From TrEMBL:
GO terms for cellular component: cytoplasm. Keywords: Activator, Cytoplasm, DNA-binding, Fatty acid metabolism, Lipid metabolism, Repressor, Transcription, Transcription regulation. This is Fatty acid metabolism regulator protein. Multifunctional regulator of fatty acid metabolism. InterPro entries: FA-response_TF_FadR, FadR_C, TF_FadR/GntR_C, Tscrpt_reg_HTH_GntR, WH-like_DNA-bd_sf, WH_DNA-bd_sf. Gene3D superfamilies: GntR ligand-binding domain-like, Winged helix-like DNA-binding domain superfamily/Winged helix DNA-binding domain. Pfam families: FadR_C, GntR. It comes from Mannheimia pernigra. One of its GO terms (molecular function) is DNA binding.
């Protein structure tokens, strides 16, 4: 099988998951096909049937497989059935997806925020102001900015009465932090974002949702140009996930 060291299995369950995921990804078990019988598959991988069943259940929850009692386990088309939680696995399987994933994560985060942050400012301006506590003492490092940014954007979802958006952010939290660190690794980008935070805070202080919308749009435009440049060397910048 190709790329046998990618997922680096360290236990029988991890070995079974590695085998199955890479077999599906490399089309050895194509979408809409049936997996071999449990006994045969367990022997092929070298794990117990109990371990295999646990792995099959987990992969089914993640969208890789469809399990139906009394019938063979079916391989899914992950692009139709899986959720954002498998993003990291996809990148480990094929680094060529990295630029696309990062572009999508950045776009999703930004477009969602443009919708819900002005609403939060409109509904709860005073509570929005509190989200910026500690801003002026924010440590000038990529990690600190990444953590502050995630927390800020996530907390805004609740003030906007959009808790499902918080769940979406939760689903790619790890990727969000890694992507944010790429951006914030440059001190000029941290300064740009600090200015953005201050402008957004000013909108919150006056309860001006329209000003917040303008602020969000300007930030999308300025940061978008930076991301175009960063995406050129994203493989080297991000390193190992």
């Amino acid at each position: 099988m190709e790329n046998t060291s990618i997922l680096k299995a360290q236990s029988p369950a991890a070995l079974a998951e590695e085998y199955l995921v890479k077999s599906i990804w490399n089309n050895h078990f194509p979408a809409d096909s049936d997996l071999p019988a449990e006994r045969e598959l367990a022997e092929r991988i070298g794990v117990t049937r109990t371990t295999l069943r646990e792995v099959l259940q987990r992969l089914a929850r993640d969208g890789w497989l469809h399990i139906q009692h009394g019938k063979p386990t079916r391989v899914n088309n992950i692009w139709e059935t899986a959720g954002p939680n498998i993003i990291s696995t996809i990148i480990k399987l094929d680094k060529n997806y990295l630029p696309v994933v990062i572009s999508n994560v950045v776009s999703l985060r930004t477009r969602m925020a443009e919708a819900y942050i002005p609403e939060a400012v409109k509904f709860s301006p005073q509570e929005c102001v509190k989200l910026f506590d500690g801003l002026e003492n924010l440590e000038n490092t990529a990690t600190a900015y990444a953590e502050f940014d995630y927390k800020l954007f996530r907390q805004f979802t609740f003030l906007a009465k959009k808790p499902v958006y918080a769940l979406i952010l939760n689903s790619f939290k790890s990727m969000y932090h890694q992507v944010a660190k790429i951006f914030f690794n440059d001190s000029s980008n941290r300064q740009l974002t600090l200015n953005f935070y201050r402008s957004l805070l000013a909108a919150c202080l006056t309860g001006d949702s329209q000003k917040a919308s303008i602020c969000m749009a300007k930030n999308r435009q300025s940061s978008g140009e930076i991301w175009k440049k960063l995406s050129v060397n994203v493989h080297e910048t991000l390193g190992e996930l």
